[in-house]
Design brief:
The protein is an alpha+beta fold. The protein has a single domain (about 1-10, about 20-140), classed as Bacterial Protein-export protein SecB (Roll). About 35% of the residues lie in helices and about 40% in strands. The protein has four helices and five strands; from the N terminus they run αβαβββααβ. The chain has helices at about 1-10, 40-45, 100-130, 145-155, and strands at about 20-30, 50-65, 65-80, 80-100, 165. Strand 3 (about 65-80) and strand 4 (about 80-100) form a beta hairpin. The radius of gyration is 19 Å and the shape is elongated.
Length: about 170
């Protein structure tokens, strides 16, 4: 599909905006349970597990109107002062994006693409936690539109980009 976009542009034809999801894949995955098996005994005791989610995102221009968007999720669960588990995934996708204004393209890469990638990343995290011997954990939906708007607002104010962190 990206080749068709390039040929249309080369022939001078008026091209309609096109957005094509070409591939979704796991780029990197990691799971650690540094205090196992002792931590399993502490799960049932009075200390409540604390979960922290860190989000990150990056986009790479691959040329020919193709972009790789990578959504990074790091889930850290602690009980007291000890780490129960650490689950990390980089869920990636290759998207063909052509014919959009610069602002619309930024919105697609910053909001639409992460929204498409998140359910896949959520499933990987859930599987890692469950297969690691811990109680099931399902990440709640994330409003990437609001996160992108906040990032744009900070950029307009000259603020530094800061990865999102959610605690539960």
């Amino acid at each position: 599909m990206a080749q068709e976009i390039t040929n249309d542009q080369a022939n001078g034809q008026a091209s309609q905006p096109q957005l094509v999801m070409q591939k979704i894949y796991v780029k990197d995955v990691s799971f650690e349970a540094p205090n196992a098996p002792q931590i399993f005994q502490e799960i049932d005791e009075k200390d409540q597990p604390q979960v922290q989610l860190n989000l990150g995102q990056k986009a790479t221009d691959l040329g020919n109107s193709l972009y790789e968007v990578v959504l990074s999720l790091t889930l850290t669960c602690t009980i007291g002062q000890r780490t129960a588990y650490l689950a990390e995934v980089e869920q990636a996708g290759v998207f063909g994006i052509a014919g959009f204004s610069e602002a619309d393209q930024a919105g697609i890469i910053g909001s639409y693409c992460p929204n498409l990638l998140f359910p896949y990343a959520r499933q990987v995290i859930s599987s890692l936690v469950l297969e690691g011997g811990f109680p099931p954990f399902l990440l709640q939906p994330i409003n990437f539109d609001a996160l992108f708007a906040e990032q744009q607002r900070r950029g307009a104010m000259g603020g530094d980009e800061v990865p999102a962190t959610l605690n539960s």
